[in-house]
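Task card 7
Instruction: Convert sequence to structure tokens.
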Amino acid sequence: MLVRGRDLAPALDGLAGEDQALLAIGRPVCPACRLVPASLAAVAEARPGLAMVICDMAAPEDWAVREAVLWPRGIRVSPASVPVLVLLRRGEVVASRQGGAPAHLLDAWIAGHLGPAARPVPEGITDAEQEVLAATAGRRVQHGVVKGV
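Output:
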């Protein structure tokens, strides 16, 4: 489920009723954030019982909800720290991490906190992830030049 930042409170309330859930927070202009939906689609296939919400923090009013919605739950995020992935168990934060990764690496991180997946995520880059990487190649190169990488 994709929600905007200002729609995050009801989405989080829905996740509070789930035994296990994952919240992904990103920005639409961030190349790493654009990879997260493709990676999580593969994780969702491997973990059908894991509820997921991807939150798109696009506008200043989306970011304005952090203090009331995220901070009381112990979720710290800023525009510079996205993407951020948060694992929840019955609404309580279990773990969080900054940065995206291929699906198999994200699933390994999840497995360390929630146990193994019902079906393993194959190592390597999925076709969907490869498509996103190709589409964001120019922007990623630009980021590298700005950061001096």
